[in-house]
Amino acid sequence: MRRYRPLLGITQKRVVPVILILGVSLAMTGCAVEDPLSEQARAGDSKNYIAGDGSVSEFAPDSRGEPVGLVAELYDGTAVDVADWKGQVTVLNIWYAACAPCRVEAPDLQALYEEHNGAGVQFLGVNIRDEKATAEAFERTFDITYPSVNDEDGGTLLALTEYVPPQAVPSTLVLDKQGRVAGRIIGLAEKSTLDALITDVLAEQ
Fold it and tell me: Which residues pair with 126 in a beta bridge?
């Protein structure tokens, strides 16, 4: 097993008419996304959530154990069984909307989903706390287009406690083509680190 820590890069005066100034101000306001919780996480303030330690683990094929058993429902009631994705790499991200580091990593997760979509990689969020409206608001805010299962009852998280501590959110698992845990990030997923985990597992025969 290889362990390493990711580096967090955490992503002449002129007289101008008042109307022009106002217009520029409004345009800038429309383009900027203010997210105090994201800023809180970037500043290292872990108030109101328990941060993971940022550890990253990569497991050799002969040490991966049994496939992960995960059967759950999306917010629209659709059943999901990760066993159906055998032959593909699966990324499981554990999150909830008020989790500050979850909001920091959300754009990177979406970018990686878009990059690997159609290349034999499935992304699935595991929302451990939110009702449907809250989860969907988060997805709209960060333009998340991959699905999440509703785990308000904690059943899915319980099934994953062998691999991730239940109090460390976010956490991300990369499952190999047999559904076994090949990589794990406890805490915020740095984009290049997660991309390397996905790429390594994709390349396996």
Answer: 94, 149
**Residues of the chain under the 50 pLDDT cut:** 1-33, 37, 41, 46, 48-49
Q: What is the dihedral of CA 26, 143, 93, 96, to 10 degrees?
A: 60
Q: What are the residue ranges spanned by the domains of the chain?
A: 56-202
Report the C-alpha gap between 47 and 37 in whole angstroms: 10
- Kindly list the distances between the CA atom of residue 117 and the CA atoms of 41, 46, 102, 114, 145, in Å, as whole numbers in the listed order: 28, 32, 21, 5, 11
Q: What are the tens digits of pLDDT across the range 133-172?
A: 999 999 999 999 999 999 999 999 998 999 999 888 999 9
The 10 Å Cβ neighbour count of residue 132 is 13
Calpha distance 67→147 (Å, rounded): 21
Contacts for 86 with CB less than 8 Å, ≥ 6 apart: 67, 177, 178, 179
CA distance 116 to 60: 22
Residue 115: CB partners within 8 Å, gap ≥ 6?
Answer: 195
Query: 56-202 has which CATH code?
Result: 3.40.30.10
CA nearest neighbour of 193 among 37, 10, 1: 10
